Amino acid sequence: MKIEKIGVIGAGVMGAGIAQAFATSGYRVLLRDISQGALDRGLATIGTSLSRLVAKEKMTQVDADAAAGRITATLTLEDFHDRDLIVEAVVEKFEVKKAIIGDLDRICPARTIFASNTSSLSLTRIAAASNHPGRVIGMHFFNPVAMMQLVEVIRAIQTTDAVNAAVVATVAKLGKEAKVARDSYGFVVNRVLIPMINEAINCVYENVATPEDVDAMMKLGAAHPMGPLALGDLIGLDIVLDVMEVLHAGFADPKYRPSPLLKQMCDAGYLGRKTGRGFFSY
Ligand code: NAI
């Protein structure tokens, strides 16, 4: 399967990062969002990120300019008719992703691969929204995309071997590491990471230790570069709660019960860095 022309739908935090990763690796990228303002913000984010890489001498100015030049912004989904691989990174709402897949089915030939960057929705359910479900797969990038090495490749039960192999090979061309997981709630990284953060929150809830000490213990005793509560604040406690609810509802296993304190923090609007206050102040 030839993968040369890339489409990225959604120019937010992840879509901008994904478009940049492909463009930096030499791919031509078409980037789409629903408003010119969102596209402009996405392109500005990419410009800032490339400038930072140049300042850190991880990239030359010439290469950064060439990468930026490979990205074309559009508001028109029909422009995606000639794409080989389309990655969607729109809002985490099944109905929105389903509508996009339906539109792409109409616009694109059957060979086009549709990848979703969803962090919690069932890939099998997303694939079922396509007339050609075998072409649908998950490409779960991590934030910030320019820095993070992993792409979790998620196989829906419908995904074909050829599509899986083509996506794994493409990830390698991005200079990133692909690891394949079968479609399952939270995939692997979030299923392991988020319950650990939830358990750290339970330690605070049950007065086992202070937030400062829980984080210090995990840094000093488990060699984690960042404590779990500081990490929860960075990710956003609302996102941590969303993932716990997906795991809890999906597996119907009480071990994934969201911490009552996590719910209270979200109810209070103490969501972490983005609101200036979570387990720590910013
Ligand atoms: P975001 O809110 O920053 O960006 C979403 C973008 O999608 C917005 O610019 C919005 O205007 C656009 N959009 C909405 N509907 C659209 C449509 N019909 N067509 C085109 N564009 C549309 O969200 P973010 O954080 O980039 O997340 C996007 C996806 O990536 C979600 O599925 C999320 O679960 C996933 N994800 C997020 C991570 C993160 O750390 N933020 C990490 C890994 C995955």
TrEMBL record:
The keyword Cell membrane does not apply. InterPro entries: 3-OHacyl-CoA_DH, 3-OHacyl-CoA_DH_CS, 3-OHacyl-CoA_DH_NAD-bd, 3HC_DH_C, 6-PGluconate_DH-like_C_sf, 6PGD_dom2, NAD(P)-bd_dom_sf. Keywords: NAD, Oxidoreductase. It holds the Pfam family 3HCDH_N. It comes from Rhodoblastus sphagnicola. SUPFAM superfamilies: 6-phosphogluconate dehydrogenase C-terminal domain-like, NAD(P)-binding Rossmann-fold domains. Signal peptide: none annotated. One of its GO terms (molecular function) is 3-hydroxybutyryl-CoA dehydrogenase activity. Residues 186-282 form the 3-hydroxyacyl-CoA dehydrogenase C-terminal domain. NAD(+) binds at G10, A11, G12, V13, M14, G15, D33, E92, K97, S119, N143, K274. Residues 5-183 form the 3-hydroxyacyl-CoA dehydrogenase NAD binding domain. This is 3-hydroxybutyryl-CoA dehydrogenase. The lineage of its organism: Bacteria, Pseudomonadati, Pseudomonadota, Alphaproteobacteria, Hyphomicrobiales. It comes from the Bacteria.
